[in-house]
Amino acid sequence: MKQLLDKYLVRLTSLGESERQAILGELTIKVYAKGTVLLEQGEPSDKCWFVLRGCVRQYSLDEEGRESTSAFYTEEQAIAGFDRGNPEEGSAWSLTCLEECVLVVGDFSAEPDMFGRHAQLESMTRRMMEEHLGRMQREFAAFIASTPEERYRMMLRQRPDLRERVPQHQLASYLGMTPESLSRIKKRIADS
Predict the structure, then answer these.
(1) For the chain, which residues make up each domain, given as ranges?
(2) What is the DSSP string of the chain?
(3) Locate the Cyclic nucleotide-binding domain: which residues (predicted)?
(4) How confident is the model over 68-78, as pLDDT tens digits?
(5) Residue 85 pLDDT > 70, yes or no?
(6) Are 79 and 56 in contact (CB under 8 A)?
(7) With contact defined as beta carbons under 8 Å apart, do 53 and 1 qualify?
(8) What is the CA radius of gyration of the chain?
């Protein structure tokens, strides 16, 4: 699993082999069982994760208890809360493992020390987050401008694995529709 992380270090830094191995040696990699809650909505968030294997769902509950799925994180995707400026409010969402997951676990309080010892690591992290935010902005703009069927077709093109990995009601929530609407769209596409 650390080979995957080394790929990012090679691509996004100019670190030598010994520095990369030192960084990889400091990282914490954990295995989480399916159903593990990494973060509850309302809890303060002091961790970030990088998915080596598995699928993590990000969702929130409204005041009436309805779930709204906002993201699925799969292999080679980072999960980080950008709302750390007001920690007493807690997280706006929950994070749950939909499969057994292998994750790199980062602690925000350890970041300054690690970045101080490995200056290029901060630059690499920033570049990864910039790529992630750019992708999220493009996906959000496309989501807003598309019909439910177009959203489903786009998901099939960009992230076809979600169809098999995610329960239909969660996938429907992520696509902004009811499970019944998603069933009708799937049937219409299969019949065409």
Answers:
(1) 2-126, 146-192
(2) -HHHHHHHHHHH----HHHHHHHHHH-EEEEE-TT-EEE-TTS---EEEEEEES-EEEEEE-TT--EEEEEEE-TT-EE--S-TT-GGG--SSEEEESS-EEEEEEEGGGHHHHHHH-HHHHHHHHHHHHHHHHHHHHHHHHHHTS-HHHHHHHHHHH-TTHHHHS-HHHHHHHTTS-HHHHHHHHHHHHH-
(3) 11-86
(4) 999 999 998 88
(5) no
(6) yes
(7) yes
(8) 18
